[in-house]
Amino acid sequence: MLTQFFLFGVSGWMMEIIWTGLSSLFRRDFKLTATTSIWMFFIYGLAAFTGPVYDALEMTPLIVRGGIYTLCIFAVEYITGTCLKKVKSCPWDYSGCKFAVQGVIRLDFAPAWFTVGLIFERMHMILRGL
Predict the structure, then answer these.
(1) Which of 67, 81, 88, 129 is deepest in the core (most CB within 10 A)?
(2) Alpha-carbon torsion 72, 102, 46, 20, what sign?
(3) d(CA 46, CA 97)
(4) Is 25 helix (H, G, I), strand (E, B) or coil?
(5) Beta bridge partners of 106
(6) φ/ψ bin of 105: left (φ > 0), alpha (ψ from -120 to 50), beta (otherwise)
(7) How far is Cα 90 from Cα 79, in angstroms, rounded to an integer?
């Protein structure tokens, strides 16, 4: 379980670095400056505990699985973001964004979380086969 936690944590970190680096182009930052936080390693690492969900949904259509993963990621993002805000340690703040919910989740990120959920599902299936 510790190995899976590490792999999911590092994979999430890498995806976040790519996402924030490419997003910097919208700010005309052609250095592709990326940002993340140590907290994100632990938050992405939580995906290691979702194996039973992936297994239970294995025969479900892709669009349904991705939708469920998106909702689960929104829930984890909301809970962790709210908790971290209480101790003034939340590394993200979506307060000024159009589709933000209490500044801790962005509904317009649903396609990204849909994709991340499916990537993590695939990682789980590969790790399960080892």
Answers:
(1) 81
(2) positive
(3) 26
(4) helix
(5) 100
(6) beta
(7) 11
Instruction: With beta carbons less than 8 A apart as the criterion, state whether 86 and 63 touch.
Output: no
Locate 52 and state its tokens. Answer: 């039973």
Distance of CA 63 to the CA centre of its chain: 18
* Residue 101 buriedness (CB in 10 A; 0-12 / 13-18 / 19+): middle
pLDDT at 130 > cutoff 90: no
The pairing of beta strand 105-106 with beta strand 100-101: antiparallel
Mean pLDDT within 47-70: 94
Could you say which DSSP state residue 92 is in? -
Q: What is the pLDDT of residues 18-41, one digit of tens each?
A: 999 999 999 999 999 999 999 999
Neighbouring C-beta atoms of residue 37, cutoff 10 Å: 15
* Euclidean distance between CA atoms 24 and 39, whole angstroms: 21
Angle between helices 2-23 and 110-129 (to 10 degrees): 150
Sign of the dihedral through C-alpha 96, 78, 28, 119: negative
Q: How many residues does the chain have?
A: 130
